[in-house]
Amino acid sequence: MSLMSNILAFPLRPVVQPLRRPAALVRAAVAGQPMWRRDRDLRRVLRSDAIPAPGHALPRLRAEEDRMNAARQEGAAEYDMHQHVLLMIAILAESRIIPVPGPQLRAVT
User: Which is more confident, 54 or 2?
Assistant: First the structure.
């Protein structure tokens, strides 16, 4: 029997809940991807002076988008479709740059 383990430990990638939104909203967000510049646009969308590290803005963007989607579904007067599309563009862009940790070997002693 060997004292060395043949099992590799893989850290789990953060699970991002899928968004179910109207096709027109998603198409607009996908169409806006080529024009997205993280260093320029993320500050504006987050209303922040600093740009967070990759992956750190996503929870804040998702929370804001959830509020925006609720306003859309309610037909609220303050709903801003342009801002909603910008949030969706930001979410798509940030989802693509989430750091994926590589496999880590676990030492067995």
Answer: 54
Rounded Cα–Cα distance for residues 85 and 21 (Å): 11
**What was the pLDDT predicted at 55?**
82
Please say whether the beta carbons of 98 and 54 come within 8 A. Answer: yes
Enumerate the H helices of 1-109 as residue ranges: 23-32, 38-46, 58-74, 81-96
Lookup result for tokens 């959830």: 66
Helix (H, G, I), strand (E, B) or coil at 33: helix
Global confidence as pTM? 0.75
Which one-letter amino acid corresponds to residue 86?
L
Distance CA 57, CA 65 (A): 12
